Amino acid sequence: DLTQLILGIDRDSAALKKVGNEKNKAVKEMIKKVIKICRQKKKYIGICGQAPSDFPEFAEFLVEQGIESMSLNPDTVIKTTLTVAKKEKQLKGRAGK
Question: PEP-utilising enzyme C-terminal domain location, by residue (predicted)?
């Protein structure tokens, strides 16, 4: 729903799937801003939707931005959790340097 609102497109249109998904730069920028503001105000921030399950790189992006939780499809929980854990470990390694 957020993607549809930001881009002003029909999310169910097959013709727009390549440009009208959560990997779109405008969508990612908006999510980045929202996460930053919530973290600054000490508000819990999580996300639900298909993107973290469909796009592992999007789940990594969310972790990089400081998301606190994300919903996942049952069939992707293990794979995405491993992706998230790997990204969190990388970020901890950078912070320790």
Answer: 1-87
